[in-house]
């Protein structure tokens, strides 16, 4: 038995070392990744949290994202305001200014 390696064995050893190095580097990168599992019922704000994290920690929304989300934000705002106005009426909450009374078709 000799102490030298054949060319094939040397190449295999070099490949093995390169693979080990890549695995170690990938492991270090993966260790820095933070993963978060958001659980909750429908409409509980899971996607809102993700959007806020994107705004805060990334470069914000692209132009296409803004175009996509704009109608959704407007719709949610209108639906929320309508729900508040209906709740005010059913709970007997009056406007501070009487001229602001609801006059829409649902009132």
From TrEMBL:
GO cellular component annotations of the record: cytoplasm; heterotrimeric G-protein complex
Pfam families cross-referenced by the UniProt entry: G-alpha
Lineage, top ranks: Eukaryota, Metazoa, Chordata, Craniata, Vertebrata
Annotated protein name in UniProt: Guanine nucleotide binding protein (G protein), alpha activating activity polypeptide O, a
Binding annotation for Mg(2+): 47
GO MF term (any one): metal ion binding
Membrane topology: Lipid-anchor
Localization annotation: Cell membrane; Membrane
UniProt keyword list: Cell membrane, GTP-binding, Hydrolase, Lipoprotein, Magnesium, Membrane, Metal-binding, Myristate, Nucleotide-binding, Palmitate, Transducer
Gene Ontology biological process terms from the UniProt entry: adenylate cyclase-modulating G protein-coupled receptor signaling pathway; G protein-coupled dopamine receptor signaling pathway
């Amino acid at each position: 038995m000799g102490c030298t390696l054949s060319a094939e064995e040397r190449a295999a050893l070099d490949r093995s070392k390169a693979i080990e190095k890549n695995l170690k580097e990938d492991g270090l990168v993966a260790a820095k990744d933070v993963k978060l599992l958001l659980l909750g019922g429908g409409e509980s704000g899971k996607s809102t949290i993700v959007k806020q994290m994107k705004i805060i920690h990334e470069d914000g929304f692209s132009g296409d994202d803004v175009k996509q989300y704009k109608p959704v934000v407007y719709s949610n705002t209108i639906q929320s305001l309508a729900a508040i106005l209906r709740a005010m009426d059913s709970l007997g909450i009056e406007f501070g200014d009487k001229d602001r009374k609801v006059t829409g078709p649902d009132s």
